[in-house]
Design a protein that fits this description.
45% of the residues lie in helices and 25% in strands. The chain has helices at residues 17-33, 58-61, 65-82, 96-107, 121-127, 129-137; strands spanning 8-12, 36-43, 46-48, 55-57, 87-93, 111-116, 142-146. α4 packs parallel to α6 (129-137).
Length: 149
């Protein structure tokens, strides 16, 4: 980061409590640095189901998913804007960590703020894998906000 300036903050969200806490932290940081926030949600394109059906497009299982995502992003963005912070939204499809990293680079993010579920063991391997991959592969700083108990 040039001279520790934070102007563009990317906040990935899956609309969980952990993502909500990360967004709250991002608002505090954005206010302190006079920065803007972009919320991004990544939808996986397929769901893994038990045999005999292995992979099914999510659009088949949840035909109104993209509408629901847009509505949730808009709601969260309005709350950020109500706090006086510029906010935009972005919705993508694909592998979550790959799309988050790609979007951070495209927008020139100075910081990524994301939540973690805070699980250990097997749960961590599944639930924290996106955060862990972003943390290790990001070209900009990543702030990981744990879920408060």
């Amino acid at each position: 980061m040039d001279d520790a300036k934070i102007r563009r903050i990317l906040v990935p969200t899956d609309f969980s409590d952990a993502a909500g806490e990360a967004l709250q932290a991002a608002v505090v940081i954005a206010r302190a640095f006079n920065a803007g926030i972009e919320l991004v949600h990544v939808t996986a394109t397929v769901a893994l189901l038990p045999p005999p059906v292995d992979l099914v497009p999510l659009s088949v299982l949840m035909p109104d998913l993209s509408k629901q995502v847009r509505e949730r992003l808009t709601e969260d963005c309005k709350r950020v804007q109500a706090a006086g912070i510029p906010c935009e939204t972005n919705s993508r499809e694909g592998s979550p960590h790959t799309e988050i990293l790609e979007r951070a680079q495209e927008m020139g993010a100075d910081l990524i703020v994301m939540g973690t579920h805070g699980h250990g063991g097997v749960a961590h391997a599944v639930l924290g894998s996106v955060t862990e991959r972003v943390l290790h592969k990001s070209r900009c700083p990543v702030l990981v906000v744990p879920l408060s108990r």
